Amino acid sequence: MTGNSSRVQAVQNIINRPPMPVKQPEPLSSLWASDVFTLGKMKESLPKEVFKSLKKTIEASEELDVSIADVVALAMKDWALSKGALYYAHVFYPLTNATAEKHDGFISVQSDGSVISEFSGKVLVQGEPDGSSFPNGGIRSTFEARGYTAWDVTSPAFIMTTDNGATLCIPTVFVSWTGEALDKKTPLLRANAALNKAAKRVLSILGHTDIAPVNSSCGAEQEYFLVDTNFVSQRPDLLLAGRTLFGAAAAKGQQFDDHYFGAIPERVQVYMQDVEDQLYRLGIPAKTRHNEVAPGQFEIAPFFESANVATDHQQLLMTVLKNTAKRHGLVCLLHEKPFKGINGSGKHVNWSVGNATQGNLLDPGSTPHSNSQFLLFCGAVIRGVHKYGPLLRAAIATASNDHRLGANEAPPAIMSIYLGSQLDNVFEQISQGKITGSLNAGVMDLGINTLPIFSKDAGDRNRTSPFAFTGNRFEFRAVGSGQSVAGPLVAMNTMLADSLNWVADALESKLKTGADLDTAILKTLKEVIDTHGAVVFGGNGYSAEWHKMAVEERGLANLRTAADALPVLKEPYVEELFNKLGVLSPVELASRFEIYAEQYILAIEVEAKLVVSMAKTGIYPAAIKYLSDLSVTLSSLKSNGIDLSNERLVHITALVTSMMETVSKLSSIISRHDFSSPEEHMQFCAKTIRPLMDEVRCFADALEGEIADELWPFPTYQEMLFIK
Ligand code: ADP
Ligand code: MG
User: Fold this and answer.
1) Residue located nearest, by CA, to atom 11 of ligand 1
2) Residue 634 included in any domain
3) Closest CA to 433 of 510, 505, 506, 529
4) Which residue from 363, 375, 496, 723 has the highest number of Cβ atoms inside 10 Å of its Cβ?
């Protein structure tokens, strides 16, 4: 092994690392939700009336009776103490994709100096973290810093155990003193409520009288990379930006497709089991794990849950993935594009709507053509994605996700919808004005007696579509791996609520003029597909033809970068959508634009600074050391009569010179702040700073292929991706 001494040391450390002990997994029955204050535990510990009231709020969204808070708090505290917790925390989700928590002790000092554990209903229900340092997009100035957290009963409290102890965690919303949402949970709860109302309208027009609360569901598949800590600690880019800003491709990448679904490396499997053990204790139903396409890349997918709980669980899952990796000497990278030239990571948000009485409202059954309820809900989704596609794009717009969207590995930035052949056909019939039947899904007969004959799905999959129907749900595939799923879910639920209200209005007006229900339904569906069918696309979303056709013939937006997409949040039709459904007020929406724009700019500034410093203090010194060694060696050889060409000397000199010239250019523009608007500043980041960063990288990566390996200062792609 060559490599500079610290890289050699890193590899030695990894080789000599004792394996993590393999824990014998406990039976699921004793693990499952053992750290969660579940309905079952509430039932055991609360008076019957109190439990009944709480259950109604949780399951039927009935108003929370605050007078029961003291009793609940007491039971919760006793349970938490029995689990060894000395502290409790209101957990909330600020507008940063992170999770925030402020810990308070149960301790209460008495007048005689003794202490007791105390936890009242008041502190369960409401907290007041100062929180003035969280981004608020101009809603609060620092002298008006009050922010409140309020208990979200619908997401269960849990114990978070770390090596440092146990804490009772209470999921909460986070709002300003003036009542504006400062978090990601508040609009999600409001969007769920709007969806519930709109869906019930449609269901009751269809003749249902017993309609349970309608909720959205979410199952998020999470992709991530694992890299050994020994390498990450030597890569300032991975440490601070979460992705490599330099690095020549290894000779082998993912071209053999030999990592995808391959045998999971032992060290990784031990890690995964450790993660799952904790997830199960937290009541998070981890279900699927496998290797992903890129070397060093993996995926975990839990079973789906109601959107609000799934969102909280998704945040927890990201925390558990990261914290557990540390214990295993690994770093879990959730960035959308940690390594150039191999696939990045996404988060597929599987999403549906349903309730306890009518079931999954996006389940077509085996004869979708005769399932008008399904068709109306599916039609509402089609209308939503067409009308609010740019909003969906904005909901996944981050500096890091820009590297994926449109890079022929992830769905394009153009929002279209994939239905599959069976539904395509049904909607085609609707457009013709007459529904006759559903294409048969058919069976798969492999012609080998010993293999079973099985039934096929009615539609294939299409991994190039950002928004694909997958049998009984939609899968929003363009979401970033490091993102909270709350934003995308808010966008999806709000657009669907709007569309369902439109459907209800359309049906009602037709019924009023004397149409029978079937005719009203068919006419409404025809209007949907005739007006919004342009968003349905079943072909190759990666192809250049689609990109041209989508924009020029179908009028769909192609918002390539977050700088192009985020301003959609300022569009009047988006403001109206959120405002009329009570999801976000204009002030709240405007503040979100400010915050996301700022985060985009800051993310690129940090990266640009890293490019400058790594190039100047790491790559340049290594390159000139090599040049100097080389020229000394060449002249000494020459004096001994061996005359080697100095071609390489010239080539490397040219690369170093060009790299440093570009570094100077980049360095001089990073801190430009004389922009008239955040939009202009974002465009400058996207169109001027980023390309210069790429240019520096080009020269640097070429240098990596030229100079002596023992001088190269940063762990290489080969090391980071293949040594574990
Ligand atoms: P694939 O990789 O084949 O798309 P996975 O099994 O990895 O599928 O993940 C599918 C995800 O979709 C899981 O989280 C699953 O629980 C979720 N899912 C299934 N049905 C629904 C539904 N009705 N609503 C939301 N999510 C669902
Ligand atoms: Mg999937």
Assistant:
1) 219
2) yes
3) 529
4) 496
